[in-house]
Amino acid sequence: MDRMSPLDASFLHIEDANTHMHIGSVAVFEGPAPSYDEFERLVASKLPAVPRYRQKVRFVPLQIGRPVWVDDPHFQLGYHLRHSALAPPGGDHELRNLVGRLMGQRLDRNRALWEMWMVEGLEDGHWAIISKVHHCMVDGVSGTDLLAVMLDSEPEPLRPAPQNWVPEPEPSNARLLRDSVAGLVGRPYEQFRAVRSATRAPRAALGRVGEVVRGVRAWAGVARPVPPTSLNSPIGPHRRWDWARTTLADVKTVRNALGGTVNDVVLSVLTRGFRDLLMERGEDVDDRVVRTLVPVSVRSASERGTYNNRVSGMIAELPVGIGDPRERLEAIRAQMDGLKESKQAVAGEVLTSLSGFAPSLLLALGMRAAMRVHQGNVNTVTTNVPGPQWQLYACGRPMLEAFPFVPLGPNMTVTVAIFSYRGMLNYGVTGDYDKSNDISVLCRGIEAGMTELLKLADAPST
Question: Which domain holds residue 424?
Answer without folding.
Answer: 202-458
